[in-house]
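User: Some background: our group keeps a shared notebook of sequences we're curious about, and every so often someone picks one and asks for a predicted structure to add to the entry. Today it's my turn. The entry only has the sequence so far, pasted here. Could you supply the structure so I can complete it?
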Amino acid sequence: MAERQAAVARGLFHVTPIFIAGGCGAVIEDVDGNRLIDFAAGLAVLNVGHLAPEVAEAVRGQSEKFLHACFHVTPYEGYVRLCAALNRLAPGGFPKKSFLANSGAEAVENAVKIARAYTGRPGVVCFEHAFHGRTYMAMTMTAKEKPYKIGFAPFNPGVYRAPFPYCYRWPTGQDPLRVSRECFAAFERLLREEIKPDQVAAVIIEPVLGEGGFVPAPAEFLRLLRTFCGENGIVFIADEVQTGFGRTGGLFACSELGIVPDLMTLAKGLGGGMPISAVVGRAEIMDAPMAGGIGGTFGGNPVSCAAALAVIDLFESGGLLGRARALADKLPARLAALRRFAKVGDIRGLGAMQALELVFDQAGKEPDPETTVKLIRHCYERGLILMSAGTYGNVVRLLMPLGISDAELDEGLAVLEGGLKALAA
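Assistant: Of course. Here's the predicted structure to add to the notebook entry:
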C-alpha cells in the first residue's frame, strides 16, 4: 500500500486494502494467499464471474488476430455483430441501432448528445440520488456532491433535477403508488416552472439507483414518466449501466419493470471484465447525429467486443440467465431475516441487486454511515468483500457474481449476518 500511495493519485478510493492476485467465479485470492468471497463483482462488472472461461477464451482468440484497428478506419465484424445482438435483445419491437464506447460515462454523454441532435432541444432532466458517471455532463447529472463533484465546478448548463421516488424516505409514506403519483406531480411542476417540455431533449433515469442506494423506481412512476416523454417528444433514456445483464433477474431492469426506453446505456456487465459500453435504441434517434458526430478511437475495441459477445452467449445459451432468476428469487427471502437487527432500516432491491440501509434506529431512520464502514471492514477481515452506496453513505450493496454457488452464497451471507450481530452487541 505504501508503493500505491507513492505512485498513484490520491483521488482514487479503495473499498478494501486487499490486493488481488487471482480470481475464479465468485472467489478471489489476495497477494497473501487469503481466499475471499466477492459480493462486489468488480463494481457490478463481473456478473459472469471472475475469469469466466468462455470470456477468457474469446479474449484469447481475438488477441491472436488483432488487438486494435479503430472502427473509423478499418471496420471489423465483431463491432457489427455486437450491435446487432444488442439491437435484438433491447426492449421494444421497433428498429434499433447501437453505438459502442468504452465506459458507462461515455455511453451517458453520447446518449445526451444523440437526444439533443434528434430533438434540437437543449434541456436534460435527471433525478435526485442519481449517479451517471464522472465526465462533465455525466458528473453534472450525478447528484452526490462529495466526493464526486466537490472542487470540479462549474458544471454543464441545461440540466434540471427532479425528485426520485425513494419510498423508504418519502415524506408522506412508503406506499409505492402514492409515492409514484406525488413524485410525478413534482416532476410535472418542474417542467411547468423551471423548463418547458418543448425545451427538454431527454429525461434520464436509473431504473434502480446504483450509487444512490439500490432504490428501485416503482413501476407506476416509470410508466407515468414514459407516457409523459412520449406525449411531449422527449427522449426517454434508461441508464442501465449497473442494472444490465442479469443483475436484476432479467437481462435488463426495464424489461422487469415493464417499460420500453427510447435509448438505453449499457456498460459494466456487458464486457465480463473488459472495458466496453453501448448506447442502444430507436434507429431514427440513433441516426440523428451526422456522420462523425459520435465515435472515438478505442470505442468498441475488438477484444472487448469478443468478450461482450461471449457474455451474451452465456446469458442466452449458457444458462446464466436462469441462475440469475434463481438468485433473484432466493435473495430477498434470505435477506428478510436480517430485519431483526435494529440497525437495518430497509432491505430492498430488484433481483440480485439487493441492499441494506443502515440507520441509528428504525423509527427515526437517521442514516448511520459509521456502522456501514465498520460492517464492511468486519466482513472483509473475515473473507467477504462488500461495498457501500447511498447518498448518505449508509447502504450496503450486494453484487455477487450471478453464478455463485449456493454454498458460497450461504458462506457470504453468514459473514454478513455475523457482522450485524457483532455490531449490535
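Suggested note for the entry: The two ends are 32 Å apart (CA to CA). The first strand starts at residue 20 and ends at 24.
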